[in-house]
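A favour between colleagues. Tell me how you read the following sequence-structure pair.

===
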Amino acid sequence: MKKNVIIFHLTDRGACSWVRFRFMVGLLETNTGGELVPVISPFEVIEPDVLSRTAAVVFARPMIQLHGDLLERYKAKRAQYGFKVFADFDDLLCDIDGKSPIPEYNRFKASPFEIGKVMERHCAGLDGITVASEYLKNTLERRFGWDNVSVLPNTVPGFAYGMAPRESVESDIVKPRVLYAGSMTHFKEGHLGDFEGPWVPWMREAAGKGEIDLHCFGFSAPEFLSDVPVTLHPYVPAVAFPATVAAIRPDIYLAPLQDNEFNRCKSDLKLLEAAAVGAALLGSEFKNSPYMKAVALSRIWEDCSAEGLDCVVDTICQKDNFNAILRNQRQMMQAEGRYTESRDSIMRFLGAYMGDAVSCT
């Protein structure tokens, strides 16, 4: 019997599952000539005829005991049905060296120590574990002693942005449209979080003077921007996020991060999003920052001043510099196959879970 089913258990319907799986799953059947049958199931699949045709079961973010129990039941059936079982992690969610890696300002509610226990008990003996970044791979290998972790880099669905990304501008940008499209977990009331450093003083000064057209997601402005001009965009379902960002048409795409273990394990997703809409990334630089692939001009050191950041923005907005950044980002996307619909991306995804059992048309 041909094994052409791949079962996905996705623990959320938010951005994580869309970026890692849902957009890709929507492409798999079409791009394998109907040879592959991807199934997203909220429940355990127990039908023997389906399991007999299953090549792989993929569990995204197994974090609680319920997830661990489900993994064990699938692991127990591997020998009978001949499928493989995988887990996937896109962030550092477990304890490291006896400490929580979650920054104090992050609003993540679950216990990293409990998640670590689930991962230790139930991810051992899996056929493979995929992660979103090389640094996360190395961290989990050190934490658990695993030797079957591989990097499956994030991609973005170019088709979902609704149009080809801007490739160039014809003149200098006088008043750049600046977008922060990150989540609310990067800061909290009374704590600047990942916006520590030059970011807030620069935004307040530049927006207050009308030098930038500032936009961010949220139903209300962060308290540190509550008294400056900022255009708000309500959060939308993850499937609508690409088109929403594309409609804003940002020139500069903000991606501030603090230098900590949690952020070092992050992927370069914001760089991909910036490339997909034809905006210049402006992200934080530190050792093992996820944005080290961005051009040097797009990276801001922690000790940069607000005045220095303003100079960087002015420089980026010069036509030749802006076009060079867009070109660099575009070339990176093409060379690394970072659009979800690209052949390289689909083949990499299939190879991670199916080996050479299925081909891409």
User: Anything to note?
Assistant: The longest helix spans residues 319-336. DSSP finds twelve helices and twelve strands in the chain. The mean pLDDT is 94. The chain has two domains: 5-155+340-354, 158-336.
